[in-house]
Amino acid sequence: MWTGEIYFLAKGAGIPQFIILMTFAAHRTLSVAGALLAGLFLSSCSSQQQVEAPARLPAYHFVPGKTAVLHNGKAIPPRNAPSQVKRAIAAANSLVNKPYRLGGGHRRHYDTHYDCSGSTSFVLKEAGLLTSTRHSRLFLNYGQKGAGDWISIYAKNGHVFMVICGLRFDTTGSGRRGEGPRWRVDGRNTRNFLVRHPTGL
Asked: Record's InterPro entries (predicted)?
């Protein structure tokens, strides 16, 4: 179709046909090249939005004024922690010792059982840092890339947990799965996790 139209215009205008064809081909080549460059640029931008976690998260280490402390299984935040961080810790404390159930915390905000993403979502919602419950894979794009100063989210497809003021809040620990949300002081394998944080925290 395009060849016939180009040939007709070329005859009417007195312009050699091959010039029109070359112009059309060059235009199409430039369009393809532009699309490829745009794709590479977008791919580069997308990759810059993610930061992989280190292969292993170290065990809890107390830092005065920066880390929370554990007392009877509950976390006590530093005095100088931002209000949203204190609210997040209070929310996490309210879930300590709740049993684990896959899907727990997804159908109801206040539930009897919680899974990893349900408990993480609960804490962030109570702190005003999330509006709706998410599954683990949706935390891959939560907030900003990299670890935060106060709150960090470690996520991969299938699991998510938090570190708040140096304490890990997780549904798994000590090699056991499905224990329910607890504060943890031991290190853990974080290979293949991405790390994110709430904006400003």
From this structure: Papain-like_cys_pep_sf
Enumerate the domain spans of the chain: 2-48, 56-197
Per-residue pLDDT of the chain (201 residues; tens, 9 = 90+): 444 433 333 444 444 443 333 333 444 443 444 444 444 433 333 334 688 988 899 999 999 999 999 999 999 999 999 999 999 999 999 999 999 999 999 999 999 999 999 999 999 999 999 999 999 999 999 999 999 999 999 999 999 999 999 999 999 865 556 689 999 999 999 999 999 999 999
CATH 3.90.1720.10 assigned to 56-197: yes
Are the beta carbons of 116 and 160 closer than 8 angstroms?
yes
What's the predicted TM-score (pTM) here?
A: 0.74
The Cα 16–Cα 12 span in angstroms is 10
Alpha carbon of 65 to those of 68, 80, 81, 102, 160: distances in Å? 8, 7, 8, 36, 26
Cα–Cα dist 164/175, whole Å? 21
Structure tokens at 9: 């215009």
